[in-house]
Design brief:
The chain has 612 residues and is an alpha+beta fold. The chain contains 22 helices and 21 strands. Strands 4, 5, 6, 7, 13 and 17 form a 6-stranded mixed sheet that branches. Strand 19 and strand 20 form a beta hairpin. The protein is globular. The termini are far apart. 44% of the residues are buried. Pfam families: PBP_dimer, Transpeptidase. It is a single-pass membrane protein. Keywords: Carboxypeptidase, Cell membrane, Cell shape, Cell wall biogenesis/degradation, Hydrolase, Membrane, Peptidoglycan synthesis, Protease, Signal, Transmembrane, Transmembrane helix.
Length: 612
């Protein structure tokens, strides 16, 4: 039997068009007129509220406005000089070379001559100087517009952009065939919360008689909702400070509050100003950012997953304790024939000493014992035992929020990776692989990949002895708090006692004899629990990593630092991490670490001068 074609929806759609109102404030969408026994024919209408929508602002955790829609001024320069650039610089309070630098940043390429001339974005104070001196500068013209404005030069990957405001940038990326490589449609908070920031218009649905009088409604009215403000968890001053430390490097730094999952700072270096991607006078800057070989447009902390190195020994130790492969008192010989150990140290007689010295042979033997354990039921089938044990290792490690999307409130988050038995069966082209062919897992290398947000969250889990809130950047939407999923507590599969067993070793890392002893904060009374890592890199210098939290007995900040091609974690990543910890907990840096702070900031300034 043949099914009749569903004509009814098509007829209804046609009638909707015929009955659509044509007067201002009304839209297509009302059903056909209806007949009422008392009032006669009643015509449905869909009336749109005339109240103007205002896009919500973005504020930091201390209510400093970071992004807002504001009236701005564009200064149109004459297409043909003469123009006294030195005099104009002084009028606007700029450095002597600032005008030409800004013109260079505005031009799409060197030597370009835009049809409408060059237009530069001015602050209100700068625009007033032009207005007050217009008689002396008749060739200059001011144009007022309403634009999405950034009041900060930091936090670009977090703040992001609304796609509607960044079309020039996205089109340029597409023309240069760089968009897919950079995963550019990752417009940060602005795009993730676009609907809430934009708000929505209100709609009334009255039934009107022939005199235009309402008699009930044909559908429920929709309330007008103004764009809502987003209050971030980011501390703008801490963000700026962290960026100043990493500006001359490639890598990331993520700091969060382990008690709430709120991200305090998230740096992806090299850094750039958030307004560069949307400002009408930064076309040249966008071109340089896309072509920069250091890839500043990658949001390294959320969209790039890397081998974590020795910091992953913390996860391995927790899983090994949980599955009974080791105890806190277990010791192993530092057998260099198994795997190299770059640190010369005393024998690791227990887990705390193994963490303090970051002994590679210790963790090789601990994970080998876990993977090669053969229960009595499988005594004749060691291959199946290895598969089961690796699957158990992966299952427990995954409960840290690894090998999956955490669900942070940023677009394009990556999941990272933890290998499974099936993965190795395929990669080794046999199911009879042995531990020796996968031993790199024991020191956080090989196929393991984690993002910066996952590494920082890993620290929050240990700080909390086994639980976490999903990391997030927005602590409240208007007056309503964060999205509900960010208030749900998640638990790992590891007992709290096994996390507790890690803490003494992490504290010892920062003390005399530990791998990060020179980066402790004992002089200011702060006990840091941490772990250094050095990630082997076959294509250049090794990468430096550090993870930690403080204070150790009452954690208020958890942190992860990853610096590409920077060498040892103890000498590169750890100093940056403790400076951020001290800055957050105390508000200022003790004299003892001022030289370290100056060296890092100087490197950042040198990088900016080179790439300006």
């Amino acid at each position: 039997m043949q099914t009749a074609f569903p004509w009814k929806p098509f007829i209804l759609a046609f009638m909707l068009l015929l009955n659509a109102c044509s007067s201002p404030g009304q839209e297509v969408g009302a059903p056909p007129a209806v007949q009422d026994s008392t009032f006669g024919p009643l015509t449905p209408r869909r009336v749109v509220s005339t109240e103007a929508l205002q896009r919500g602002r973005v504020l930091d955790r201390n209510d400093s406005v970071l992004v807002a829609t504001r009236p701005v001024y564009l200064l149109a320069l004459p297409t043909r000089p003469p123009l006294d650039s030195l005099k104009l610089n002084r009028l606007l309070g700029w450095r002597d070379s600032a005008l030409w630098r800004r013109i260079e940043a505005a031009l799409p390429y060197e030597g370009a001559r835009p049809k409408g001339g060059v237009k530069l974005l001015l602050t209100n104070a700068e625009a007033k100087k032009i207005q007050d001196n217009q008689a002396d500068w008749p060739m200059l013209k001011l144009e007022q517009r309403t634009l999405r404005s950034y009041t900060t030069s930091t936090g670009a990957p977090i703040l992001g952009y609304a796609y509607a405001n960044a079309q020039a940038f996205l089109n340029l990326a597409q023309r240069q065939q760089r968009g897919r490589f950079y995963r550019l449609r990752n417009g940060g908070i602005e795009s993730y919360y676009n609907g809430l920031l934009t708000g929505h218009r209100g709609y009334a649905h009255p039934l009107l008689d022939t005199l235009g009088q309402p008699h009930g409604s044909w559908a429920a009215d929709t309330a007008f909702q103004q764009g809502q403000d987003l209050h971030l968890s980011i501390d703008a001053k801490l963000q700026a400070y962290a960026e100043s430390l990493l500006a001359g490097r490639k890598g990331y730094l993520v700091a969060l509050d382990p008690r709430t999952g709120e991200v305090l700072a998230a740096v992806s270096a090299p850094t750039f100003a958030p307004g560069a991607l949307t400002a009408p006078d930064r076309s040249g800057t966008r071109h340089k950012l896309l072509e920069n070989e250091d890839m500043p447009l990658l949001n390294r902390s959320a969209t790039l997953a890397n081998p974590p190195g020795s910091v992953f020994k913390l996860v391995n130790a927790a899983v090994a304790l949980q599955l009974g492969a080791i105890k806190p008192t277990t010791g192993f010989r530092c057998d260099q024939s198994l795997i190299n150990c770059v640190h010369h140290h005393p024998q690791a007689r227990n887990l705390s000493m193994a963490l303090q010295y970051s002994c590679n042979p210790y963790f090789y033997q601990a994970i080998r014992k876990l993977i090669e354990h053969v229960p009595d039921s499988l005594v004749a089938d060691t291959t199946t035992a290895r598969h089961r044990n690796l699957a158990a290792w992966q299952h427990y490690a995954k409960s840290f929020g690894l090998d999956t999307l955490l669900g942070v409130d940023l677009p394009r988050e990556q999941a990272g990776f933890l290998p499974t038995p099936a993965f190795y069966d395929k990669a080794r082209r046999t199911r009879y692989w042995k531990f020796r062919s996968i031993y790199s897992l024991s020191v956080g290398q090989g196929e393991i990949n984690l993002t910066g947000l996952q590494m920082a969250n890993m620290m929050a889990i240990i700080a909390n002895r086994g639980w976490y809130y999903t990391p997030h950047f927005v602590r409240s939407i208007g007056e309503n708090g964060p999205l509900s999923r960010f208030t749900e507590k998640h638990h790992t599969l590891i007992d709290s006692a096994n996390f507790e067993a890690l803490i003494p070793g992490m504290i010892a890392v920062m003390q005399r004899g530990g791998t990060a002893a020179t980066s402790n904060l004992a002089d200011v009374g702060i006990t840091v629990a941490g772990k250094t890592g050095t990630v082997q890199n076959d294509e250049g210098d090794d990468h430096a990593t550090f993870v930690g939290f403080a204070p150790a007995d009452n954690p208020k900040i958890a942190i992860a630092v990853y610096l590409e091609n920077a060498g040892f974690g103890a000498t590169a990543a750890a100093p940056a991490a403790v400076l951020v910890i001290e800055k957050y907990l105390r508000g200022y840096i003790a004299p003892k670490r001022k030289n370290s702070e100056r060296r890092m900031k100087y490197r950042g300034l040198a990088y900016e001068r080179e790439h300006r």
